[in-house]
Design brief:
Blueprint lengths: L1 H29 L7 H8 L4 H12 L3 H26 L8 H9 L2 H7 L3 E2 L1 H20 L14 H33 L3 H13 L2 H11 L3 H26 L2 E2 L2 H25 L4 H23 L1
Antiparallel strand pairs: 1-2
Length: about 300
Amino acid sequence: MSWLAVLLLIAGLVLVVAGAELFFEAVLASASRLHVSAFAFTAVVSGFELENLAAGIALDLNGLPDAAAGTFLGGTTFLALAVAGLGALVAPLRPGLPRPALAWTAAAGVPLLVLGADGRLGRIDGAILVAWFAVALFGLARSAPPGPPADAPPGRVVPILLRLVAGLGLLSVGGELLGESLRRVVERFGVSATLLGNTAIAASVEAEEVARVAVPARRGRSDVALGNIVGTVVHFAALNGGIIALVRPLELGDDSRALHLPVAAASAAVLAGLLAAGDGLGRRAGGLLVALYVAYLVAAVAASLY
């Protein structure tokens, strides 16, 4: 039964990621002929990570609030430190972003930090976070750097709708499997749900983000790579956290409140600061971000043991 829990966990992750990819391709095709900057388009659309949101809702409904919070807290940290750092190590992300875009990125996690400081994210807090998301994403899109518009892949209406429905179906099944399997893993192996949610689950669900950043970076499209990172950070720190709290209020444990929450908010500010300091991210800055993420993992493991 222990291995069955692990297999269910893996199956849930696979279905969630596959469903999100299918859904994202359909959304991308449906919006392909909009004439907007690549940065703005990527920040708005690519940041809508349904696999992360589905996992967080499923975990919360399965009575694992700290693991649910980990999907957007640990997810934000993973994106701002690990994904951005690895992307910069593959190819420097230059040029950087305009000052207004950096300001919106640095501020992305501040409302979440303030609202969650008391150890609880209620439905009113969730509504505030969703409202903040709308403001922050609008400001981020308006601050888009100049560049060519996004490419427009063709797509017909019926296949796009079929992919939307199929993607949502996979997300629903995968999210439920993920929540149930994590509960079994926690019960049978005694592993902290908070640690799993903020590290293993957050990183596994968002692993494809590394490729989404590395590929455009290697092709000289740092605007697309950075749009994906900062857009997703805003989505996680505001929209995902807000929606999950609206579905079911989150009671945050000591580790979430003292470590994962402040680190998530700080990681977005650190990313913005390094982007501002170097007009983008070079390999040295990328190495620093990866080192910071490793330090966070060490601190998370240590916190779960005491």
